[in-house]
Amino acid sequence: MFEPLLLAAHNPGPMTGSGNNTYLLASRGGSTTLIDAGVGEPQHLSELAMAIGDARLDFVFVTHGHRDHAAGAPALAVAHPTASFSKHPWPGEDAHYDVPWRSLGDGDMVRAGDATLQTLHTPGHSPDHLAFWHEPTRTIFTGDLVTLGSSVMIHWSRGGDLGQYLASLERLLALDPRRLLPAHGPTIDDPRAILTGYLEHRRQRERQVLDALRAGRATVQAIAESIYDGLAPALMTAAQENVRAHLEKLKSERRAADEHGRWTL
Ligand SMILES: [Zn+2]
């Protein structure tokens, strides 16, 4: 039986939507594993404690080092001294969350409850991003690679890389998954349609960025304002990061150039 239990991290906000999902996997022998740490909200901790009951929390696997996924690690370490914490290293960032991190690489096989999961290094949204693949049920814990109803932000100035992100989506697609369990939003039961939709959305954005450059818009801000017209100010910084990620991808493909923050084709 493979039934990950969704535990809400109770951290709603402009960048997290209704808040993060964490997933608990239990074994018959009383060992549990949590995927993503949340932020240490008391309600998350108490619902986790209730779900674990008499069992132990042995492993916490963190999909990536963004705050909403990793910041809860120290609080979990206090509440669950048996737990170890693992993620793919992100030098300079992991130290913000003061637990002894164990290192996961690509293709590692890890125990989670009664299941075995394979780690997939899937950078792009962040350099350290991992997804977790359960082959028998064709389920992937997808972290921040996919979120229904909103677009995934690529923070270029914080290690995001659009080219890598698209390659990571292609990698998920190639596994032919049946179900995606994202860190934000509802479960995805039609992965192929969603993943191909995401890839098409990025191709469309790229066309918009190219059109804006062609129209003489030369700064990240001007391009973002032309594409994301009417976006809430709280999200405009993230939108500019997305535009920058597209521009940097085009630059690496020699399809755009920049000089002192002025971009041209
Ligand atoms: Zn993230």
**pLDDT averaged residue by residue:** 95
Number of strands: 13
> How can the largest sheet be summarized?
6 strands, mixed
What ligands does this structure carry? zinc ion
The number of helices is 7
> Helicity level, as a percent range?
25-40%
Counting copies of identical and different chains, the oligomeric state is single chain
Reading the helices and strands in chain order gives EEEHEHHEEEEEEHEHHHEE
What percent of residues are in strands? 15-25%
Low-pLDDT sequence parts: none
Q: Describe the strand arrangement of the main beta sheet, using strand numbers.
A: 1-2-3-4-5-6
Radius of gyration, CA atoms, in whole angstroms: 19 Å
The shape, in one word, is elongated
Ends apart, CA distance between termini: 54 Å
Structural class: alpha/beta
Short summary of the structure?
The chain is an alpha/beta fold. The chain contains 7 helices and 13 strands.
Detailed description of the structure:
The chain is 33% helix and 22% strand. It contains 7 helices and 13 strands. It has a 6-stranded mixed β-sheet, with helices on one face. A 5-stranded mixed β-sheet has the order 7-8-9-10-11, with no helix packed on it. A hairpin with a 4-residue loop joins β2 and β3. α6 packs across α7. It binds zinc ion (ZN). The site of zinc ion (ZN) has 5 residues, from loops.
Topology readout:
Layout: E1 5-8, E2 21-26, E3 31-35, H1 42-52, E4 56-61, H2 67-70, H3 73-79, E5 84-87, E6 101-103, E7 109-112, E8 115-121, E9 130-134, E10 139-143, H4 162-174, E11 179-182, H5 191-214, H6 220-227, H7 233-252, E12 257-259, E13 262-264
Parallel strand pairs: 3-4, 4-5, 5-6, 10-11
Antiparallel strand pairs: 1-2, 2-3, 7-8, 8-9, 9-10, 12-13
The structure holds zinc ion.
Zinc ion binds next to loops.
